[in-house]
Design a protein that fits this description.
five-stranded mixed barrel
C-alpha cells in the first residue's frame, strides 16, 4: 500500500487512470557519472549549444523524453477505482458508466493505492493497482500472502460445498481469498468422513460467524481453516513454528493420526508432534489410544522435548499440563533418590511390553521376560521397569515360560491403573538404563521389616554385609546346568547354589531363603558367594516369652552365657542359658573365625562331673563306641580356637553379630 506518493499522470475515460511514482534524481543520471564529469559538461555546454543551433533537434534525446521514460507508473483499471456498491443503481435502471474525469485531475495526489501485480503489466516498469477501499484497508485480503496463520476471520461466506469439506471466502466480495474447511474441522464432536448432516446447514452464500486459519501456503495458494469452537476459543499463545516449541509450553491442537504406539497431534502451519502410549497411560490412564481418541478431536498438550534430525524435527508431547514437566529422556532422570531397597507406593502402570523368545543352550530359560513401565511421582517423577518375573514368589506350574508370565501380568497389571501392592527398588538405573522394581511379597517384607520385627533374615545389597552363616532371601535369576542356581539380591548382587547342593532342582524366578556357606571377597568387583537353601522355620506356635525375646534380639547385644551342644572344625552349636531365656531354648551358631579360647571355670567342671557320673551309672555290656564329638575333638588341633571347647562347656560374654 502506497500512501500520498502517487500522482495522476493521465486519465483515460472508460479505461482507467495512470498514476506516476516519484523518480529519484540519481536515476536520471547515467551509471558511473561523477562530479568531475558534471563540471566538464557545464564547461562544454556553450559549445554544444552553438552546435545544436546548426543541427536539427532529435525529440527522443530531449530531457523531457528521458525523464518520462524513467518514470515508474501504476495503472488502475476503471473496475478497480471504486467499490461496486458505490456505483450501483436501482434494479430497473442500468448502472451508469463511471466518469473518471470528474473524479481525478492530472497532478492530483492519491491518498492510498495498492499494488496488485507487477508481472502482469503490459509495459515494462508499470504495475497494476487498485483504489477500492476494500483493497487499500490494512486488513484487506488480496492474496494468500495477506492471510495470517492463527487469525480469526469473521463474516465468512460459503462459496461451495465439496465432498472433502466446505470452500469459504475470506474477506469481502471484491477481495476474496478461498480457503477450505475439511469435514473433520466443521464441528468439535462430529468427525464423520462426509459430515453430510452439517453440510445440509451450510448452503452456498450463507455467512459463517467465524473461522480460524490453520495453515496457508502462498506458493501453492492453499489455505485451510477450522470451525471448531475449542480452537476458536483458545486464548493460549499459538504454536505456529517449531521455534515456538519450548519445553513446558502448552498448546491446543487436533489429532491427525492414532496408532497403537501413540497419538499424532498437529498445531498451526503443520507443526506436529507425537504423544507416546505410555505417556497417555501415565497422564490420562488410557490403555489403548485407538479406543479413546479419534482423528479430528482436539487435545491440550505440553511440549516435553524437541529434537532436530536430518529429516526434520521430532516433537514429543504429553497431556500432563498441570504438574512439572516430565522429561521422557531416560538420561535426564534424577536418580539420586533411587536407592536399591527403597520402598515405593502408588505407582501407575503406563506401558506393557511382552517378552520374546531367545536361544540359550546352557540355561533352562529360552525366553526373555516382558516388563511393565511403572511411573512413580515420588521420588522425582521416575519411571521404573517391572519385569513380569517379579510379580509373585513362586508358580504352581513346573515350567515357567512367557505364556505363564504374560498370564500373570494380565491378571495383576492394567495400563493406566495404580499398583495395589508395595514395591521396592531392585536395581538403580545408570545411563540410559531404567531402574527396576519388584513386587515379590517375601522380598518386600524383608526390606519393610523393622529391626524389632526382624528375624535376622536379610536382603543384602553389598557383599560386605554378608558373613558365613548369614541367612538371606533372594530369587532364582538363572539356572545353569553346568553350575547350578544363581540367586539374585539387591543391586545385582548374586550368589550360587552349586549343582551338588541341588541347585539345578530349583524353580526359575522363585523366591528362596538361603544361608551363606562360603564367602570370598578378595575380588571386590566380583565376590564369590556360595549358598545353600534353608527351610523356612515355623514360628506360628512359638509364643513363649523366651522365644519372643530371641526374636527381638538385635545385632550388637550381649549374651551372658551359652552351653556348647556340638562342635566341629568349622562351627559350634550352643544353647543360650541366660536367665532372660530360662523358659525356652535359644540355639546360637558360633563360627570358628569368631571364637576364642576359654578357661575351664567351675561351672564347666560341675557339668563335666555330672556327665561323668551319668556315664558311670550306665551299664554297658561292651565298650562304648567313639562318639562323633570325640572324632571332631580329635580332628581339632591345639592351635584351633575350638581346641579348649568341649561338649557341655560354658562360654560367657558372647556378642550377637548377625
Amino acid at each position: 500500500i502506497l500512501e500520498n506518493i502517487c500522482t495522476v499522470l493521465r486519465i483515460d475515460n472508460g479505461v482507467g487512470v495512470l498514476l506516476a511514482l516519484p523518480v529519484p534524481e540519481q536515476e536520471t543520471k547515467e551509471d558511473g557519472s561523477d562530479e568531475s564529469e558534471d563540471e566538464e559538461d557545464e564547461k562544454e555546454k556553450p559549445k554544444q549549444m552553438a552546435k545544436k543551433k546548426k543541427k536539427k533537434i532529435n525529440p527522443l534525446e530531449s530531457e523531457e523524453h528521458i525523464r518520462a521514460a524513467a518514470t515508474r507508473a501504476i495503472f488502475v483499471h476503471i473496475s478497480k477505482v471504486v467499490d461496486e456498491g458505490k456505483n450501483k443503481k436501482s434494479k430497473n435502471k442500468k448502472p451508469q458508466k463511471l466518469e473518471l474525469s470528474k473524479l481525478f485531475k492530472v497532478g492530483d495526489k492519491i491518498p492510498k493505492v495498492r499494488v496488485l501485480a507487477t508481472a502482469q503489466a503490459l509495459v515494462e516498469g508499470w504495475s497494476i493497482g487498485s483504489l477500492q477501499k476494500s483493497f487499500v484497508d490494512a486488513d484487506a485480503l488480496v492474496s494468500h500472502g495477506d492471510v495470517v496463520t492463527g487469525r480469526i476471520y469473521r463474516g465468512v461466506e460459503v462459496l461451495s460445498v465439496e465432498n472433502q469439506g466446505v470452500l469459504v471466502g475470506l474477506g469481502n466480495e471484491s477481495s476474496s481469498v478461498k480457503a477450505m474447511c475439511l469435514n473433520m474441522h466443521l464441528s468439535d464432536t462430529q468427525f464423520s468422513t462426509d459430515a453430510s448432516h452439517i453440510k445440509q446447514k451450510l448452503t452456498v452464500g450463507k455467512k459463517i460467524d467465524s473461522v480460524r486459519v490453520l495453515s496457508v501456503d502462498s506458493g501453492t495458494k492453499r489455505c485451510f481453516v477450522t470451525m471448531k469452537k475449542s480452537l476458536l476459543r483458545d486464548k493460549r499463545d499459538l504454536i505456529c513454528t517449531f521455534d515456538d516449541c519450548k519445553p513446558g509450553r502448552t498448546g491446543c491442537g487436533h489429532v491427525t493420526k492414532v496408532t497403537a504406539q501413540g497419538v499424532y497431534v498437529t498445531f498451526y502451519n503443520n507443526v506436529h508432534g507425537f504423544i507416546p502410549t505410555r505417556s497417555l497411560a501415565r497422564d490420562a490412564g488410557v490403555q489403548d489410544p485407538r479406543e479413546t481418541y479419534h482423528v479430528g478431536s482436539t487435545l491440550v498438550c505440553r511440549v516435553d522435548k524437541l529434537q532436530k534430525k536430518d529429516w526434520g524435527h521430532l516433537l514429543t508431547l504429553s497431556l500432563d499440563v498441570g504438574m512439572e514437566q516430565i522429561s521422557l529422556s531416560k538420561t535426564s532422570y534424577d536418580l539420586s533418590n533411587v536407592v536399591p531397597g527403597k520402598l515405593l507406593q502408588g505407582g501407575k502402570v503406563v506401558e506393557l511390553s511382552y517378552g520374546e523368545e531367545i536361544d540359550n543352550i546352557h540355561t533352562s530359560r529360552n525366553f526373555k521376560p516382558g516388563y511393565a513401565l511403572v511411573h512413580f511421582k515420588s521420588p522425582a517423577n521416575v519411571e521404573f521397569r517391572l519385569y513380569f518375573d517379579q510379580l509373585v514368589d513362586s508358580y504352581n506350574e513346573c515350567t515357567v515360560d512367557n505364556a505363564l508370565l504374560n498370564k500373570q501380568a494380565k491378571k495383576m497389571l492394567t495400563v493406566g491403573k495404580k499398583l495395589t501392592n508395595d514395591a521396592i527398588v531392585l536395581t538403580s538405573g545408570s545411563g540410559s538404563k531404567l531402574p527396576s522394581i519388584t513386587l515379590k511379597p517375601s522380598l518386600v517384607s524383608a526390606v519393610a521389616a523393622t529391626p524389632e520385627d526382624s528375624t535376622s533374615i536379610m536382603f543384602p545389597k553389598k557383599a560386605s554385609d554378608l558373613y558365613v552363616g548369614a541367612v538371606c532371601v533372594g530369587y532364582v535369576a538363572r539356572i545353569d546346568d553346568r553350575f547350578g542356581a544363581f540367586v539374585r539380591f539387591l543391586d545385582g548382587l548374586t550368589g550360587l547354589i552349586p549343582k551338588l547342593k541341588k541347585g539345578c532342582d530349583k524353580q526359575l524366578f522363585q523366591s528362596i531363603r538361603c544361608k551363606v556357606t562360603s564367602l570370598d571377597l578378595t575380588d571386590e568387583g566380583r565376590p564369590k558367594i556360595t549358598l545353600q537353601q534353608t527351610e523356612r522355620p515355623s514360628n506360628a506356635n512359638s509364643n513363649s516369652e523366651s522365644d519372643k525375646a530371641m526374636n527381638r534380639i538385635k545385632v550388637g547385644e550381649k549374651i551372658e552365657a551359652v552351653e556348647v551342644e556340638s562342635l566341629n572344625f568349622r562351627r559350634a552349636i550352643v544353647n543360650v542359658i541366660d536367665e532372660a531365656y530360662a523358659d525356652g531354648r535359644g540355639r546360637v551358631r558360633v563360627h570358628f573365625s569368631m571364637a576364642g579360647p576359654i578357661d575351664s571355670s567351675g561351672d564347666m567342671k560341675k557339668r563335666q562331673k555330672k556327665k561323668e557320673k551319668q556315664a558311670s551309672d550306665t551299664k554297658t555290656s561292651a565298650a562304648a563306641p567313639v562318639s562323633e564329638e570325640d572324632d571332631a575333638k580329635e580332628a581339632i588341633p591345639e592351635e584351633h580356637p575350638f581346641s579348649s571347647w568341649s561338649k557341655g562347656g560354658i562360654v560367657r560374654n558372647l556378642t550377637v553379630v548377625g
